[in-house]
Amino acid sequence: EIVLTQSPGTLPLSPGDTATLSCRASDSVNSDYLAWFQQKIGQTPRLLIFGTSTRATGIPDRFSGSGSGTEFTLTISRLQPEDFAVYYCQHYGSLIYTFGQGTKLEI
Amino acid sequence: QVQLVQSGAEVKKPGSSVKVSCKASGGTFTSYTFSWVRQAPGQGLEWMGRVVPSYDMANYATKFLDRVTITADKSTTTVYMHLSSLRSEDTAIYYCVTVDLGVDYWGQGTLLTVSS
What we know:
The complex is a heterodimer.
Chain A: E1 4-7, E2 10-12, E3 19-25, E4 34-39, E5 46-50, E6 54-55, E7 63-68, E8 71-76, E9 86-91, E10 98-99, E11 103-106
Parallel strand pairs in A: 2-11
Antiparallel strand pairs in A: 1-3, 3-8, 4-5, 4-9, 5-6, 7-8, 9-10, 9-11
Chain B: E1 3-6, E2 10-12, E3 18-25, E4 34-39, E5 45-52, E6 57-60, E7 68-73, E8 78-83, E9 92-100, E10 103-106, E11 110-114
Parallel strand pairs in B: 2-11
Antiparallel strand pairs in B: 1-3, 3-8, 4-5, 4-9, 5-6, 7-8, 9-10, 9-11
């Protein structure tokens, strides 16, 4: 079972900054099956990125994903106030899916 | 567009079991894979397992392998998650979710409280 480790646990930034969130897999994964979700307080999660770098419907191009093998990154440019939330990576390329533990992006 | 409507909140005693339902509408039920994800208070997302209705196949996270059963009823387009041997640590919101063509669909969540 793949274990995903996200870093940092908390990322303090300001509006206008660029956020770089990391997701490390315990073993090499197929980049076709790596996703990122955003969750705001009191809301259900929302898919941002799938297949490592493809933005989900309606997601602004300030969000971008990259990576391969065991190292994956979510980059959020020009942070907006509504971007401050918790972000999770997910691997869904095997019979067993897994989530990382999350990175909290805070002001 | 898929809509997922889950059953209501549950309060259970330790050692008992619970069955949560998730009614799907607005799409072709057998073309989707449905996962169950839970979130304990103040904690992260935890994937529990998934069901593929077209194959009547389910897969489970190792942690839940001996306690969870996920099934799909094609006749009612409803997915079920049965969790047994409940303990206080199972107190959480349980979500059913599916992703189709880059769009995710989540149920509204079912709060399970396990308390004596």
